[in-house]
Structures are given as structure tokens and as C-alpha cells.
Design goal:
Layout (H helix, E strand, L loop, with lengths): L6 H8 L4 H22 L1 H4 L5 E3 L5 H8 L6 H15 L2 E4 L2 E4 L3 E3 L20 E3 L4 E3 L8 H4 L8 H27 L2 H19 L5 H28 L6 H25 L3 H12 L13 H6 L3 H14 L10 H9 L10 H6 L3 H25 L7 H10 L1 H6 L1 H6 L3 H21 L5 H28 L2 H26 L8 H16 L26
Antiparallel strand pairs: 1-6, 2-3, 4-5
Helix pairs in contact: 2-9, 2-10, 2-11, 7-8, 7-9, 7-22, 8-9, 8-11, 9-10, 10-17, 10-21, 13-14, 16-21, 16-22, 16-23, 20-21, 20-23, 21-22
């Protein structure tokens, strides 16, 4: 039997989507649900709440409003807002009369509030808040904003706090790139899960904004490592015709986590309790310690031939195809490992100096950044589409399930990875641009969901696409570089949303233009549908690069 068989060829013999791979993917998906919840939890942890200046003399009355039972929401709103009416000035905003958030009348207030008292009857002068505010707790019992008073002069810290988690994503991609190719995918995943649980739990006990911010940075870093390692392990154990199913399955579970977060946040209105529940949801992933194998591809690239042989035999036994194993398996893998650049890992310089790979890498990095920017921007903005934050957030997650499922017929069709990604990004971008100029209502929400649908589908495909487009010795580094670029987009997403305070249409317009531009650039990427994964830099030229 020939010694030129590659790992993909061996997988086809023993089953590239057999019982073993199905079991493995099921276990891997455990990490996608809590990772999704952790990634998007900032929507509720750092939610902005309607607020106004507190009047010290009426503090006891306001606290009595807070103590009303949750079932008496209408009574609570009437109670809390009567104090605002008596002390807070109003002004005209886009034809609507609204209450000031950071000013109150500069008056001498009575010790006891009365229904007949209006500070505006005594003065028109206003003053800033005395470092204390009343928060409307109709939707949120507490958030980071209410606990640390991130309002008025500190309002900019809200967007900064959101971005810190995704700055951690940027740090995590660097950590993953270094770790996964040197200690392996399995141990990177296991370390990430353990530390992620501890950091998520510790965040719930933050006593200051500084402590919260630092913990969120590292929480994001290890959450990213956990998700990426799981995705790469799931992909590398599959043959070319089956890799798409792994990506779609993990993405569907990510959407399930998205929806679960909306439900949990509805039931748990206190951000600290919600954070503890999320930490507990990550804990079962620790079971993967006794279940997961190392990546056979990584073992071969590191010239760890004997463990690779044992692992392949285990897969064949589980798939009941052991009789199909070639008798000279070890010799084949040894021969294949010689092509893996002598067991060395690709560096950034390799991406720059390798013909064809250079422009492909830059293009893929840009598209990761754009897709991440628009995806997280639309996810954060989902709570602005309706009066109920939890319902609109849940629906925004729900729309992702059909978005991911449609990946299978799309990229399996003649459109492939390239044209599917191109069309989805362009349509998603146009939807964002249209949404930017629509008035609030059903039509705007519908068009926005079309954009979210397209960008979600594109995000799922680009994960699969990038895992296929790089050779084995550079796969983790390549995915890491792309993911690093993606984190720049996720960091910018909440900061760009802050621009709506100046021009309502600007954030969605920026998202839309970026998505259209990224989609057009995808045209210059190579197609990977139905091709074998390249194992070394020399084999990269086996993928036809279209110009």
C-alpha cells in the first residue's frame, strides 16, 4: 500500500464523520453554550438604566418604592416617577418632552414629599446631581451602571466597560496562538475552561469598577481560548466533506446560549446573581478533561507519531472500521510528518513571505474584523429595537438558528465558501444601511433582523473558511491572526454604538458600509469546498488561487 496517504485519506477509510466524531462534537458543544452567554452577558451586566438626580430629603420614600413587590410593576412605576416629576426639569428632544438625567431644580426641598409639591413653582434654576441618582428598576434590579454610578460624567465608561471584555478577546487570541501550537489544542482548552470558571465567578464579587474591568479583560481572554480551541479540535478530526457540519453545529449551540442568556436575564434581574449562574454553567465543561483527545493533526505535525497512531486506532475501533486501517499506518504518518516543515510552527514571517498566502491572510483578517464588528454591534443594539430588552435580545438570538442551518445548503452548493460569504456580507451591509434611515417600528426591526441573519450566517461560514484555508502547521496561528483581527472589530462595536448620542443613523451606516466593502473583497479569496486540508506551507499552493 502506498505511503503517500495523508491524514484526510486515512479519515475517509476509517470514517470522517462516524460515531466517534459525533460523540466528540456533542461534547465540544458543551463549551459553546456558556461561552456564548459569557460573551454577550455585557448586554445585561452593563445595561443602561433610566435615571435622574436623587433628592436626599426623599431617600426613604424612594426606598419604599424599591421595596414594592415585583408583581406590582405599575404601582412601582407610579411611585418612583412621582418623585422625578416633583424635582427634575424637562426639555424638548426631537419633539418629545423628556426628563433631564443629570440635573434637578436648585430648590430647598421639604423633608416630606407631597403630591402638591413642584420645585418648578419656586425656581427655574437647575443644578447638577449631588453624586447620587435614582434608578428605574422596572427592568433591571441592578447592573454595573447602577452599582458604580456610570452615568452623567461617567457615562463614557459604559462603552469602555463593554469593550474591555473584547480587549480580552484580543489578548486571548495571542495566548491561544502561542499555546495551541506548543502545548496542543486539548490542554489549551482544559486550562481555558478552568480559569474561565474562576474568573467569571470572581467578577460577580467585584467591589469597584477597576476590579470589574480587570477581571472582564482576563475573562474575555480565556473565554476566547476556550471557544476557539473547541472549534479547532472539532474541525481537525473531520474530513473535508464533513467539516461544515461541525462549524454549523457549534454555531447553533452558540445561538442556543444566546437565547438562554436572554431567558436567564429575564428571570434574574440582579447582575451579580446572573454572573454566578453563568459561571456555574461553564463548570460542566470540566468533564471534557476525561473525554477529549489531542488533535491527531497536531500530533503528526509535532512528529508525535506513536500517540497519533494510537488515537487513529481508537477512532477506527469506535467507528467499527478497524479492519480498514492500513498495515503500514505508522510509516505513512512518519512520512507525512516529514512534510510538516520539520515539526516547526509557522510564524508571522511565514505568512508574509509565502506567495499567495500573504494576500489571502490579509484579506481574511480584514473580513474577520468587519464581520465581528457588525455582528456584535447588531447584538448590542438589539435591546434598542423594542420596549422589552429581554424579548428583543431573545429574538435576535433566535434568528441566528436558521441563519446557521442555511450554511449547509449554501456552502455545499455551487456558491461554495467564497461566494456565500460575499453575498451574505453585501446583503447584510445593505440591510444595515437601510435600517439606519428607517423610523422605529416593525419595518425597521424586520430589516435589522435580515441584516443580523446575513451577518450571523457569514460569521459561521468564515470560521469554517479560515480553518480550511491555512495549512496544518499554520492553522492555529492563521486562525489566531484572523481572530485577533476580529477582536479589533468587537472592541470597536460598542464604541461605535455610542455615536448614536450624536447621530442616530451613524452606527448602522458605518456597519453597513464596512460589511459591503468586506463582502466585495471576499471575491479575491481561494475556494476551499471539497479540497483536502493542506498540511504544510509547501502544500498551500495546492489550493487554486483565483485572481
Amino acid at each position: 500500500m502506498t505511503t503517500n496517504m495523508k491524514f484526510d485519506d486515512i479519515l475517509l477509510l476509517i470514517g470522517d464523520f462516524g460515531a466517534y466524531q459525533i460523540f466528540l462534537l456533542t461534547m465540544i458543544c458543551l463549551s459553546a453554550v456558556p461561552s456564548s452567554m459569557n460573551s454577550l452577558s455585557g448586554v445585561f451586566l452593563i445595561a443602561e438604566v433610566d435615571h435622574w438626580c436623587a433628592v436626599e430629603e426623599w431617600a426613604d420614600g424612594v426606598n419604599d418604592c424599591y421595596d414594592l413587590p415585583e408583581s406590582s410593576n405599575e404601582e412601582y412605576l407610579q411611585c418612583i416617577h412621582q418623585y422625578r416629576k416633583s424635582a427634575v426639569p424637562t426639555f424638548l428632544d426631537d419633539g418629545e418632552m423628556v426628563y433631564a438625567e443629570c440635573e434637578k431644580y436648585d430648590a430647598t426641598y421639604p423633608d416630606q414629599w407631597s403630591e402638591d409639591y413642584l420645585a418648578s413653582d419656586f425656581t427655574n434654576d437647575t443644578t447638577s446631581c449631588d453624586d447620587s441618582w435614582v434608578y428605574d428598576r422596572a427592568q433591571y434590579a441592578s447592573t454595573v451602571v447602577t452599582d458604580f454610578d456610570l452615568v452623567c460624567d461617567k457615562k463614557a465608561l459604559v462603552e469602555t466597560s463593554q469593550s474591555l471584555f473584547y480587549f480580552g478577546y484580543l489578548l486571548g487570541t495571542i495566548m491561544y496562538t502561542i499555546s495551541a501550537d506548543f502545548i496542543g489544542r486539548k490542554y489549551t482548552l482544559l486550562i481555558s475552561i478552568t480559569v474561565n470558571v474562576l474568573l467569571t465567578l470572581a467578577t460577580a464579587f467585584s467591589t469597584s469598577l477597576v476590579m470589574f474591568g480587570i477581571l472582564r479583560v482576563f475573562n474575555g481572554a480565556f473565554d476566547l481560548c476556550m471557544y476557539t480551541a473547541a472549534f479547532v479540535i472539532g474541525t481537525e478530526f473531520l474530513g473535508p466533506s464533513r467539516r461544515v457540519y461541525a462549524g454549523v453545529l457549534i454555531s447553533v449551540m452558540y445561538a442556543f446560549g444566546y437565547m438562554t442568556l436572554g431567558l436567564l436575564a429575564y428571570l434574574i434581574r440582579d447582575w451579580r446573581t446572573l454572573q454566578i449562574v453563568i459561571a456555574c454553567s461553564i463548570s460542566p465543561c470540566l468533564l471534557l478533561i476525561v473525554i477529549l483527545p489531542e488533535s491527531a493533526r497536531w500530533l503528526i505535525s509535532k512528529k508525535k507519531i506513536e500517540p497519533a497512531v494510537e488515537l487513529i486506532k481508537k477512532v477506527a475501533e469506535r467507528n467499527k472500521t478497524a479492519e480498514k486501517l492500513p498495515p503500514n499506518l505508522q510509516e505513512m504518518l512518519t512520512e507525512e510528518s516529514k512534510g510538516s516543515t520539520e515539526g516547526e510552527n509557522a510564524t508571522f514571517i511565514d505568512f508574509i513571505r509565502t506567495p499567495g498566502l500573504r494576500l489571502t491572510t490579509l484579506n481574511m483578517m480584514f473580513n474577520w474584523s468587519i464581520t465581528s464588528l457588525v455582528y456584535f454591534g447588531l447584538s448590542f443594539n438589539s435591546v434598542e429595537l423594542g420596549s422589552n430588552d429581554y424579548m428583543t435580545f431573545f429574538l435576535s438570538g433566535l434568528v441566528e438558528i436558521p441563519a446557521y442551518l442555511i450554511c449547509i445548503p449554501l456552502i455545499g452548493s455551487s456558491l461554495g465558501r467564497k461566494w456565500s460569504t460575499c453575498l451574505l456580507e453585501v446583503i447584510g451591509g445593505i440591510s444595515c444601511i437601510i435600517t439606519a434611515f428607517l423610523a422605529n417600528g416593525v419595518v425597521k426591526t424586520t430589516v435589522a433582523m435580515v441584516g443580523k441573519f446575513c451577518i450571523s450566517t457569514s460569521f459561521a461560514i468564515i470560521y469554517i473558511y479560515s480553518a480550511e484555508i491555512f495549512p496544518t502547521v499554520a492553522r492555529s496561528a492563521g486562525v489566531g491572526l484572523c481572530s485577533t483581527s476580529g477582536r479589533i472589530g468587537s472592541i470597536l462595536a460598542p464604541l461605535i454604538l455610542a455615536l448614536k448620542d450624536y447621530f442616530d443613523f451613524l452606527p448602522l451606516l458605518i456597519y453597513g458600509i464596512a460589511a459591503v466593502g468586506g463582502g466585495l473583497l471576499v471575491v479575491f479569496l481561494p475556494e476551499t469546498r471539497g479540497t483536502a486540508l493542506p498540511d504544510n506551507l509547501g502544500e498551500y499552493h495546492g489550493i487554486p488561487i483565483e485572481h
